[in-house]
């Protein structure tokens, strides 16, 4: 029996910007991600929900693969584990 489709949590554009800001390792990456997100926000009205998600995922590809820090939730402090060694 197929499972019912689960909806993704809704986010504001400001929360999305905060996520990308937190994931970016450099100021240049932050600027790039925010610029791309701004252009995507402008085009959002003419995109299907699926195309909009594709665009947002593509923005994440601008960030380097070596950046493995999980995003903090907006309004919460990030918990950093102590480094080993």
Written as H for each helix and E for each strand, in order along the chain, the element string is: HHH
C-alpha end-to-end distance: 49 Å
Radius of gyration: 15 Å
In helices, the fraction of residues equals 40-55%
Largest sheet: none
Beta-strand share of residues: under 5%
Strand tally is 0
Number of helices: 3
Averaged pLDDT = 79
| Principal-axis shape | globular
Point out poorly predicted stretches.
78-85
Structural class: mainly alpha
Characterise this structure.
The chain is mainly α and 85 residues long. It is built from three helices and no strands. Helix 1 (13-23) runs antiparallel to helix 2 and helix 2 (27-43) packs antiparallel against helix 3 (49-60). The longest helix has 17 residues, at 27-43. It starts with 12 loop residues before the first helix and ends in a 25-residue tail after the last helix.
Break the fold down into its secondary structure elements and pairings.
Layout: H1 13-23, H2 27-43, H3 49-60
Keywords:
85 residues; mainly alpha
Quick structural summary:
By secondary structure, the protein is mainly α. It has helices at 13-23, 27-43, 49-60.
